[in-house]
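Researcher: I've got a protein sequence and the SMILES for dephospho coenzyme A. Could you write out the 3D structure of the bound complex as structure tokens? I'd like something to compare against our soaking experiments later this week.
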Amino acid sequence: MAGAIGRAAVRALYAELALHPKPGLVSPLDSGSHDDMDMGTFLRSLFALRGYFRAIAAAGAEGADFPTLRELGITAERRMLAATGGVNTHRGAVFGLGLLAAAAGWRMRRGRTLRGNGLGATAAALWGAGILAAAPQAPDSHGARAVTRYGARGARQEAADGFPTLFEVALPALDRALAAGADPERASVQALFSLMAVLEDTNLLHRGGPAGLAFIQAGARRFLDRGGVFHAEWRDEALALHRACVVRRLSPGGSADMLAAAQFVHGLRERAA
Ligand SMILES: CC(C)(COP(=O)(O)OP(=O)(O)OC[C@H]1O[C@@H](n2cnc3c(N)ncnc32)[C@H](O)[C@@H]1O)[C@@H](O)C(=O)NCCC(=O)NCCS
Ligand SMILES: Nc1ncnc2c1ncn2[C@@H]1O[C@H](COP(=O)(O)OP(=O)(O)OP(=O)(O)O)[C@@H](O)[C@H]1O
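Model: Sure. Here is the predicted complex with dephospho coenzyme A in place.
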């Protein structure tokens, strides 16, 4: 079971990486707004993280407490940095997707369904207090500074609350687009823009301040209001926002992490069905 969860997590991260167009983000097309990483950096990181997602799913199944999960996360982050030469490729995913893999282990071991927001509710109930109580590993990280400076919610708050943006925004957008006939690629782009329109992404706050975050949210909103991936010119419109992000050096990394999380939950549900 833990092996299947681990494989689903890596598959979801690969699907996020392979997807394009993705505004400002690294994809097979180009490195977006990043000069320190490309597709190869992400693939090396992914390779280094294979064992982690299986291990954290197994720990979750055993009912591990948050400090135990955190130790696994810190070790994985170290392995990621060694594989990338110090570049932060998957920090948000090690944390968020790691917690969701642990929650999947806990629920599957106990015969609970993965429907609705079950995985988020489990993560919040078992580890929410621990997440908020843990001292930030790096109090001067880009994310921590954006949280303090702008009062943003950030990755920790999102996880401690049971990933509301994932379960209330990303997964419904993905499901609706698939039900309306979009292929997995278009449905994923729709889910990504739905996330970008609402997420308080500390990556964007760090790189562009409140104006940078507002720029992305408005651009994504406009794309969705015109019909999103159901608009005939959707690819050109998404590429136009991509180019505008690259000019401004903006990259919605938090939305990319949450898209991978949505693909992970969706994939697990498909296999369980
Ligand atoms: C909690 C983490 C994410 C640190 O976050 P921090 O606030 O310091 O921000 P940092 O800039 O380092 O990275 C945060 C990443 O989260 C993502 N993110 C940003 N905003 C959001 C958001 N609103 N929602 C979800 N993800 C987001 C981005 O990809 C970003 O890169 C994590 O790096 C950490 O402390 N790890 C220690 C090990 C740990 O707790 N592991 C747990 C394993 S379960
Ligand atoms: N496809 C992707 N392309 C780029 N970033 C992604 C992608 N998928 C996820 N991310 C997330 O975005 C984060 C990278 O953002 P960024 O490079 O701005 O972080 P940083 O190292 O904190 O800042 P900086 O590079 O500005 O010093 C990663 O931690 C990762 O979680």
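Model: The first helix runs from residue 2 to 18. DSSP finds twelve helices and no strands in the chain.
Researcher: Great, I'll pass this along to the crystallography team.
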